[in-house]
Design goal:
The complex is a heterodimer of chains A (376) and B (259). Chain A is mostly helical and 376 residues long. Chain A is built from 16 helices and six strands. Chain A is globular, with a radius of gyration of 23 Å. Chain B has two domains: 1-85 and 176-259, P-loop containing nucleotide triphosphate hydrolases (Rossmann fold); 96-173, no CATH class. A six-stranded mixed β-sheet of chain B has the order 6-7-8-3-9-10, with helices on both faces. The chains are: A mainly alpha (376), B alpha/beta (259). Chains A and B meet through helix 7, helix 8, helix 9, helix 10 and helix 15 of A and helix 2, helix 3, helix 4 and helix 5 of B.
Chain lengths: 376, 259
């Protein structure tokens, strides 16, 4: 896989080959649900949809953690806000049924407001302290969702909200099978394509933000906040903007999640979710969008793939020696530890980030300098 | 060489700052004319950097005030002060270490550009033009400082002298009226210091006013029009380099009291 990444770098230098690679990737993404239907089975289409959902989440958190360097351990709160907003405004719970195209932007907006609400009191905090406060915020949101069923039943408490309206565009409901161009699209296919489109939009927005004066200002704050302020950057506003943008991505994915599942409950928004999304960002390559995408794909798909270890043991030894669920967490932990030892900058770090963690480079340059000085 | 201008750019009026019981600055007043190179010297711990930090908004003064171009800036936020035209470098270099030299200078243009979230996402013609302006100006400044060759290198991989130059380039990218340099010659060899002297003179002749903290007396005496001396947080002398060098109080501060 690593050689694949190296290959990618050389690909970029040849525009014609790059186009061919892009088109191939595009066709693969379009054909993927049918390919997996055909090979691995329908359950994998669902997993693919979840991969895309987590790609969106990870890219949102990447803005806060990767770009601006603010360690946020309560990111799942924004996912929850988006999901519950969708659930409450499109279900029999309140009898409100707003259309999808209203709810998605609204979810982004409300999550954005929550992002600023969390960001504002934490502006002076950095590193560990920020992590603790954001962790608390994530838990507060979850506990609120759990307990806001009395005195007025707002969230329906631990039972969660059921019978959420499926995503639909007019009469075209994504939760029904459709025959288009002679191909039968099952609901899970429809959702896959919806998620794909929105994930692509989020990737695009992420790239554009990173390569703008805003992205540079975030990087400057990450590198040295004092110097950034002295260089004329309004650090308060830029940090709030990072929280707001990250949160709005989370809100969008939350809304999609609610529509896809048809059911939300506070259990889906625990601390471990925040930690998983953070792992995707760190493991993939903090601040590097392609890396974060790879991180999300691996961390969603890998545990699912490890499920096959149960049947495999059954067929090999006629009994299950290690419970696949235990094995999954064990291997997962192992992968994380090994990664941090051998590729601390992530699976696919940005080229600059890679240089950052290779100290030889700096020393070699210094050596060169002193030789240069001596010659002078 | 001194420019006979009475047009005051920076006026500092009885700025006082203490840390607990330690009086870092007491009633410091000075005024810098437009186009001057103004030196600020003094023994270690005299309060020079503290004054810089107050002027650039990193510290709040206990009392006192200062104006740049007649605008009161005391206790304003650092980014506001930078936007009003006071840019600085740091005594212990504070570059964005893991960004390229070019990006470092491009960050300096932040205060003078306006593209927002929508402009950045949609890359509107205006945003694109602005981005090009930022890049062109940053490259221009790198050439101006003589470090254009390192544009794509990470800031932390530059040599010490080049990092100092890069910091000046970043400060100049904010289009300052007053450029405040905190010990720019620290750690430089004689050749580099001579080059720095030429550079500071070039910056002045291009219309900027320079406030210079420096320990290298040859540099200070050679380049400054006016020199102020701080000792224990108080201004003990101010005048031309020659006057200051003869001042008995200054000699005492640096060499101790005559027996």
């Amino acid at each position: 896989m690593l050689s694949l990444f190296a290959h990618w770098q050389t690909l970029k230098q040849n525009p014609r080959n790059a186009w061919i690679a892009w088109i191939a990737l595009g066709l693969l993404l379009v054909a993927l649900p049918f390919l997996s239907d055909w090979t691995l089975g329908r359950s994998w289409v669902r997993i693919l949809a979840f991969v895309l959902l987590y790609v969106m989440l990870a890219l949102g958190l990447n803005i806060v953690v990767g770009f601006a360097g603010l360690l946020d351990l309560g990111y799942v709160a924004f996912f929850a806000v988006g999901a519950y907003l969708y659930a409450l405004l499109a279900s029999p719970h309140f009898g409100i049924h707003l259309p999808f195209w209203v709810l998605l932007p609204l979810g982004a907006l409300v999550a954005c407001v929550f992002g600023v609400l969390l960001g504002a009191p934490t502006l002076r905090l950095r590193g560990d302290y920020l992590a603790i406060v954001t962790l608390g915020f994530g838990e507060i949101i979850r506990i609120f969702l759990n307990n806001l069923n009395a005195p007025i039943n707002l969230t329906n408490g631990p039972q969660g909200v059921n019978l959420i309206d499926p995503v639909s565009f007019g009469d075209f409901s994504l939760s029904k099978s459709h025959d288009l161009f002679g191909i039968n699209f099952a609901p899970v296919h429809n959702y896959y394509y919806l998620f794909l489109v929105i994930a692509l939009i989020i990737i695009f927005v992420g790239f554009r933000l990173q390569h703008s004066r805003l992205g540079r200002a975030w990087a400057a704050i990450r590198e040295d906040e004092v110097a950034a302020a002295a260089t004329g950057i309004n650090t308060r506003n830029m940090k709030l903007l990072a929280f707001a943008m990250g949160a709005s991505f989370g809100g969008v994915s939350g809304g999609l999640f609610a529509g896809f599942q048809g059911f939300v409950s506070p259990e889906s928004f625990t601390l471990i979710e925040s930690v998983m999304v953070l792992c995707m960002v760190v493991l993939g390559g903090m601040g590097h969008i392609p890396g974060v995408i790879v991180g999300a794909i691996l961390l969603v798909a890998l545990p699912e793939a490890l499920r096959y270890l149960g049947p495999l043991q059954q067929s090999l030894f006629n009994k299950v020696l290690v419970d696949p669920a235990d094995l999954r967490m064990l291997l997962f932990g192992l992968v994380l530890v090994v990664m941090m030892i051998f590729r601390p900058s992530g699976i696919w770090p940005s080229p600059t980030r890679q240089r950052e963690l290779t100290p030889e480079d700096g020393i070699a340059n210094q050596e060169k300098e002193s030789v240069y000085d001596a010659n002078r | 060489m001194p420019i006979a201008s009475t047009d005051t750019l920076l006026r500092v009026h009885s700025v006082t700052k203490s840390f607990g019981g330690l009086m870092a600055l007491s009633e410091v007043s000075l005024s810098i004319s437009r186009g001057q190179i103004y030196g600020l010297i003094g023994p270690n711990g005299a309060g020079k950097t503290t004054l810089f930090n107050v002027l650039t908004g990193l510290y709040h003064a206990d009392h006192g005030e200062f104006q740049l171009n007649g605008i009161h800036l005391a206790n304003k936020k650092p980014h506001k002060i930078a936007q009003h035209g006071l840019a600085r470098t740091f005594q212990n270099i504070r570059l964005f270490a893991n960004m390229t030299a070019l990006e470092n200078v491009m960050v300096g243009r932040h205060a003078r550009t306006h593209t927002g979230v929508l402009g950045a996402i949609l890359r509107t013609p205006h945003a694109r033009a602005e981005e090009k302006e930022i890049r062109d100006r940053a490259r221009e400044l790198l050439s101006y400082m003589g470090i254009a060759a390192f544009a794509e290198d990470l800031a932390k991989n530059l040599s010490y002298g080049d990092q100092r130059r890069l910091e000046i380039a970043r400060a100049m990218a904010t289009d300052p009226q007053l450029l405040a340099l905190d010990e720019p010659a620290a750690g430089m060899n004689a050749t580099e210091t001579t080059a720095l002297k030429k550079l500071i003179e070039k910056i002045r002749s291009d219309g900027l006013t320079v406030l210079l903290i420096e320990h290298d007396m040859k540099l200070v005496m050679g380049v400054c029009d006016t020199v102020a001396v701080l000792d224990y947080g108080e201004k003990i002398a101010e005048g031309s380099p020659q006057e200051v060098q003869r001042d008995p109080l200054v000699i005492e501060a640096y060499l101790g009291c005559a027996p």
